[in-house]
């Protein structure tokens, strides 16, 4: 972890707006082999404005994703949604694929706004963003990535339609393996309602001040909404909203030079001291301690 003399006002970390690994000059869908890039892995905190999938055939290290640490190992698959903050390292040369997927590309696959929530690994309020495959599972799905790679290289007629088909098959097969999905499917309507709530929280966590507003937007009662979330996640709506606010606080502390009081006001806290107590409750440390911890590249 960073030493105690880490600067208290970090430089903003990079935000990657587009991806052009392929050299096509425009960004819609991009795929590249990890072993073909000398700028990957990136051990510094950064974010993307597009969906990002890391398919790791070979790797060994650490992935810090929205300030939670995950093991990087052979046959790992990581999923990131736009805006998430991450950094990762590998002690061995990584092999595998990076898929960068624009929101426009996904909009063609998932026409309804909440369709993407069918895939819990892209669902910020619910899913663990990693799947650890067995060698057999990895090898069984690898041809799908190889086919996508071939299509993007050859750029034949309708290539992105073909890529979308392969990608949907890949995501569906990964969803079958996702360890939390079985419980979610069993929850039926509660699971569906919780997925929709997660998307709504992402959009309105700073503008909706009452649980009633989420319930009204979803056309259910507050009691129905809380019961659905409790049944699906074992938490309350209020807890989900608070967790999202705490995450945004972490992003602002690690990515801006704003003072702690300024961040508190930006997140609708009138009292900076109350914000500090809120933050410590959700992160286990003070805002200042958190800022010092995450100002440097991960080890």
TrEMBL record:
One Pfam family of this chain: AraC_binding
Gene Ontology terms, MF aspect: DNA-binding transcription factor activity; sequence-specific DNA binding
Stored PROSITE patterns: HTH_ARAC_FAMILY_2 (PS01124)
Listed InterPro entries: AraC-bd, Homeodomain-like_sf, HTH-like, HTH_AraC, Tscrpt_reg_AraC-type_HTH
Domain HTH araC/xylS-type: 195-293
Entry superkingdom: Bacteria
SMART domains listed in its UniProt record: HTH_ARAC
SUPFAM superfamilies listed in its UniProt record: Homeodomain-like (SSF46689), Regulatory protein AraC (SSF51215)
UniProtKB keywords: Activator, DNA-binding, Transcription, Transcription regulation
Protein's name according to its UniProt entry: AraC family transcriptional regulator
Species per Swiss-Prot/TrEMBL record: Bordetella genomosp. 9
